[in-house]
Amino acid sequence: MSEKDSLGGSEAASVDRSLKLFVVLSRASKSLMDFAQQDMKRYQLNPSEFAVLELLHHKGPTPIQQIGGRVLLASGTMTYVVDKLEKKGYLKRCPCAQDRRVIYAELTEQGASLMQDIFPKHAQALHQLMEVLPAEEQEQLTSLLKKLGRHIAQVNTNH
């Protein structure tokens, strides 16, 4: 007797529904990320580089130590990405006047110009993908995914 057979009919259906949702979410997420990566590649940027530039574009100069947490990068990866972007001329490191231990990353003129050019194009490309869903469905999906994400985060902290 399999584990599935030992579940009641409605519970088995509920488990199947959850598994199907997991597969559908995983595939949709992969498709979306593949599309976004291809779009970023047009600008010779990888997703980590784009995420850092996007953060600095929207938030302004940011302590390097905080960037990794905001764009979900490990500190070792963060240093590598900042180094690459600095070599490309898109960002610079600036020491904090109040605390010499803190180093800020900020966009150079070249980095700011790049983001002013490419971010609207990237946003438009993503918008065109999402247009398959009417505004109300987009809002519902956003709300449901936030709810699911909060629940998963809570479960993870309790394990």
Automatic annotation (TrEMBL):
Entries under SUPFAM superfamilies matching the protein: Winged helix' DNA-binding domain
InterPro entries reported for this sequence: HTH_MarR-typ, MarR/SlyA-like, Tscrpt_reg_MarR-type_CS, WH-like_DNA-bd_sf, WH_DNA-bd_sf
Residue stretches making up the HTH marR-type domain: 18-150
Keyword DNA-binding: yes
One GO BP: response to stress
GO molecular function: DNA binding; DNA-binding transcription factor activity
Protein name: MarR family transcriptional regulator
Domain of life: Bacteria
Entry keyword Iron-sulfur: no
Keywords assigned: DNA-binding, Transcription, Transcription regulation
